[in-house]
Amino acid sequence: MIAPPLLDAIVDRALEEDLAGGDLSGEACVDAETQSHAAAVARKAVIACGAEVFRRVFTRVDPRCMVETLVPDGKEAPAGTTLWRVRGPARAVLASERTALNLVQRMTGIATVTRRYVDAVPKGARTRITDTRKTTPGLRVLERYAVRMGGGINHRNDLGSAVMIKDNHIIAAGGISRAVERARAHAPHTSRIEVEVDSLVQLEEAIAAGADIILLDNFSTEDVARAVARAKDLSPRPILEASGGITLERIPELALAGVDVISVGALTHSAPAADIGLDFQL
């Protein structure tokens, strides 16, 4: 679920961007009383996502618009499937079309790509596929929702959600041990401490410092396996996360190496928009 105030704020900004000057074409060419209906059709196979966003765009433009969801979020839809239908004043439908499609094409594209990564994890493996903060400014709440609908897990939402000590933090603090020490002293007791490392040497430093989660940045699969072997008998055992240079083809081998989490920036920063068209009729 997307909290209604957050959803409305995004939809209203998007509509303001597209309708600040009104809809000159619709107002000039279409009578105010003309009614219409339209179907949002997936041109290729997708994981549907964005039903409430689609509905909200049309109803914010004109409350008389009625939207029907035919495929729930998170469900697979073959090419040619009608995902959603809308009925209402033709001017409102035409004025809403581009904004609605822009948002749901983005969300459905992310959900579809995420499902491919999730499905690539071998059966029996316990590895989680997560997103990152590499999201479109202003659309993070929609994109994170789309990752969940694709079967993925969300990483930290923002800088205040968790402590994540990255390479530049380590440099600024004067080393991993010092950075973890300062984080422990400053962070809430409910927050875990994650440390990014780029070598097996730094892995040992993070373990010695007591990191709760260790991010293995741009590690080879062989070094991921070595890190898993090093950590498996520790108590408490840190969670190991692989990130950087992650491709769909690497997911099976990384999961079989035993890593707990694979974070994939490509889920949001590189997912192509889904091919969804709005077929309009009077």
TrEMBL record:
Gene that encodes it:
nadC
Residues that coordinate or bind substrate: R98, T132, R133, K134, R156, K166, E196, D217, S243, G244, G245, V264, G265, A266
User: What is the protein named?
Assistant: Probable nicotinate-nucleotide pyrophosphorylase [carboxylating]
Q: Name one GO cellular component term.
A: cytoplasm
Q: In which pathway does it act?
A: Cofactor biosynthesis; NAD(+) biosynthesis; nicotinate D-ribonucleotide from quinolinate: step 1/1
The record's family statement is: Belongs to the NadC/ModD family.
According to its UniProt entry, the function of this protein is described as: Involved in the catabolism of quinolinic acid (QA).
An MF annotation (GO) of this entry: nicotinate-nucleotide diphosphorylase (carboxylating) activity
